[in-house]
Amino acid sequence: MADTLNVFFDRLDALFQEGDQQKIERFLHQTMDGYEIAGMRRSAEYATVENELACFLRGVSRYEESERAFEDALAILEERGLRGTVQFATVVINRAGLCRLRGDHGRAAELFLEAKQLLEEIGETGHYAYASVLNNLSLVYQDTGELDKALEMTKAAYEYFRDRDASEHELATSLVNIAAVYLRMNDLENAEAYSDRALAMYDAMEEENVHHAAALTASGVIRFRAGDGEAALERFRRSLGLTEHFFGKNIEYAVTEHNIASVLRQLGRTAEALETLTAARSDLANLLGGGHPRVRSWDEEIHELEAMAK
Predict the structure, then answer these.
(1) In this predicted model, which residue has the larger pLDDT, 27 or 1?
(2) Which burial class, exposed, middle or buried, applies to 219 when counting CB atoms under 10 A from its CB (0-12, 13-18, 19+)?
(3) How far apart, in whole angstroms, are the C-alpha atoms of residue 62 and residue 174?
(4) Residue 30: burial class (beta carbons within 10 Å; 0-12, 13-18, 19+)
(5) SS3 annotation, 208-269
(6) Most CB atoms within 10 A, among 118, 137, 298, 300?
(7) Residue 176: CB partners within 8 Å, gap ≥ 6?
(8) CA 60 from chain center: how many Å?
(9) Intra-chain end-to-end CA distance of the chain, in Å
(10) pLDDT in tens, 191-200
(11) Measured between alpha carbons, how far is 111 from 99 in angstroms, rounded to an integer?
C-alpha cells in the first residue's frame, strides 16, 4: 500500500506543477472513490488522501469544505487507533493552518500546541512535522503580535532544517518566515537580508515552487516599506502569477492585487491603481461576499481613487 501512496503523491505533485485546479480536485476525488469501492472508506490510506484534499480546498479558499474534510480524516485516524502517530499530528497541523487562515488565532494556537505536545510525547521531535509546528506557531505569534516568540520559533525551525541538511525548499521557506518576523519588528535590514537569501534559493530551483510566491510577497513588502516602489511592483506581479498558477484566484491572489494597487497609488499611477483595486475587490467578493468587512474597506479605497482620478 505504501507503493500505491507513493505513486499517488508523485502524480499529485505533477498535477500541482501543471497548475490545473480542476484536474487536481478530480484526481483527489477519484482516488478517494477508488478506496471507497475497495471497501477502504475508513482506512488510514483514505484519510491520507482526504487530508490532501482538505489542504487543496484550503489553498483555493474553500474553507468550510476544507474543515469538513479535515474533521473526517481525523475521525478516521482515531477510529483506526492512530491518534498517537505522526500522521495524526500532521492532520492536526494542517487543520490548525486552516483556523489561522480563517482568523481564529486562538484555536490555531491550541491545535499547533496540541500537535507539538503529541510529537514530543511519541519521541518524534526529529520529524519534519515538528519543524512544521515551529514554523506555524511562529506565524500565529506574528498574527497575535508576540514577535519575540515568533522569532524564537522560526529560528528554531531553520536550525532544525540546517542541521539535517534539509532541501533548499525547507531552508528557503524558513528564511522567508524569519524575514517576515523581522519585517514586523521594523528591522528592514535583517528582513531584506533573509528575504534575499530565500529568493536566491527559489530562483535557482529547477522547478517552480509553491512557496516562491510568499517569498516574493515578503520581498515586495520590504521594498515597498523601503521606498522602492518599482522593485516592489516587480515582486508582487511575479507573486501574483505564481499564486494563480498553483491556486487560482484565491484570497492570497486578491490580497496581492491589493498590494499592487497600493504600490501603483504610491507611484502616482492612479488610473492603473483603480483598475487593479477594482479587480481585487471583485475577486475577494467572489470568495467572501460583498458584505465582508474587508471588501467594504476596499470599496472605500476605490471611492478615494475614483475621486483622485477625476
Answers:
(1) 27
(2) buried
(3) 26
(4) exposed
(5) CCCCHHHHHHHHHHHHHHCCCHHHHHHHHHHHHHHHHHHHCCCHHHHHHHHHHHHHHHHCCC
(6) 137
(7) 194, 195, 198, 211, 214, 215, 218
(8) 10
(9) 65
(10) 999 999 999 9
(11) 9
Segment 8-23 mean pLDDT: 92
Q: Which three cell numbers stand for residue 100?
A: 489561522
Tell me the C-alpha distance between 67 and 102, whole Å: 11
AA letter at 242: L
Helix (H, G, I), strand (E, B) or coil at 83: coil
Contact indicator for 76, 65 with CB cutoff of 8 Å: no
The pLDDT assigned to 121 comes to: 96
What type of residue is 102? R
> Hey, what's the cell of 302?
476605490
Residue labelled with grid coordinates 490545473: 20
Taking a C-beta distance cutoff of 8 angstroms, is the pair 153, 112 a contact? no
Structure-block grid coordinates of residue 152: 524564537
